[in-house]
Design goal:
CATH architecture of the largest domain: 3-Layer(aba) Sandwich
Distance between the termini: 53 Å
Strand content: 25-35%
Radius of gyration: 23 Å
Helix content: 25-40%
CATH superfamily of the largest domain: Gcn5-related N-acetyltransferase (GNAT)
Number of helices: 9
CATH topology of the largest domain: Aminopeptidase
Shape: elongated
Number of strands: 12
Amino acid sequence: MSLQIRAAQLKDLGAIEALYREHAQAPEHGFAASHALPRRQFASSRLWFLVNNTFASILPLTSAADHVYVAVGPRQGVQGFIQAETAPAGKHVWQVLNLSIRPELDRFQAGTALLDNLFNEGLRRGVFRFIVRLSVDDPMTDLFKARGFRAYATEHALLADGVAARPTVDLDGWRPMRREDELALYLLYRAVTPREVSAVEGATFREWRQNFQHGSWTSRLPRATRPRQYVVDRVQVMGWMGITPGGGARPNTLGLLALPEPSGLLDELVQRSLGYLAGHRPGPVWCSLRHYDERAIQLLQREGFEVIASQVLMVRELALKVPVRARVRVKDKALVPQYG
C-alpha cells in the first residue's frame, strides 16, 4: 500500500484519537504483540505518564510546539501518525511523543516513512537532534534503532504512597539554593553524570539550564508549585535536593544529586530529603532516577519506594546542512571573472 505523508489537519483529529484509543484499549498480549504499537505498561505506571511527558502522550493539534504528521492511504483515511514537540533544550531538539500505525500495515515500512518525514521536516526548521522515550523491551525499539537512534540512558520511576514521619537529620552544609548556585550545580551535574548522557542533555551550561529550569514537567506547573531546592555546600556544592509539590492526582516529585565522596553523603542527603517531605509535604512521592543512580535507587527502595516503570532514552543526531560562503582572497579578486 502506498502511503502519503502530510501534516495533520484539524479534520484528522477524530481519526488520530480513534487510532490512539484503539491502541490504548488493546490487550497487552494481543494487539500490542503484533508489534504495531509501543507496548504499554499499565496499573501504577500510568501515573508516570501523567507526571512525565513520555511516549504515547496525546497533545492538542493546536499546540504551537506540536508537530503531527499522518500517513494516509488511498480512500482509506489515516493509517498512522507521528507526533513530536520541541524539547526543553531548545528549538534544535524534537522529542518524539507518539508513533501509531494500524496493525495490518508493515511496521517498518510505514514507521520508516513517518520517521523519515519527521526528520526532513525537522531539518527544514534547523532541528538536528531527535529524542524518544520507550518502555524497556518495547517492540518499537527495533524500528528506532533501524532508523539510527541509540540508547544513552535507562530511566526508572520510583513511587511511594507516603513517607513515614521521622526526626529531621542535621546535614552539614544544608541550605536553600540561591540563583548564584546554578553554575556550581551544573558542575555537580557534570561530575556525577556519564559523558554520553551529559553530551545529549547538558553539553553546555546554557543547554543544561534550559533543561533544568524548563523541563517538560516543570514548565507546565503553576508558580506556586515550582520546586523547593536545597544544596549541600561544603566549600563547594556537593549535593542537591529539589522537591516539586504535588496536588490532586499528581504526587510530590523528588530530585537528588550527590558526589560519590564522601561515601556517606548520599545516605545523609536521602534521609534529610525524606525528613523534609514527611514534615512539609506529606503524600505520595515520585522520583525519577537513571541506571547510573543505582545506589540512590537502593536507598529509596529500603524506604518503601517501588520501581513502577522503566524507560529507555534514545537519541538520533543528524548532520545539519548549512550553506557556506565562498571567500576569495583580496589578491585573487582580479582573477574572478566579472559579468554585467
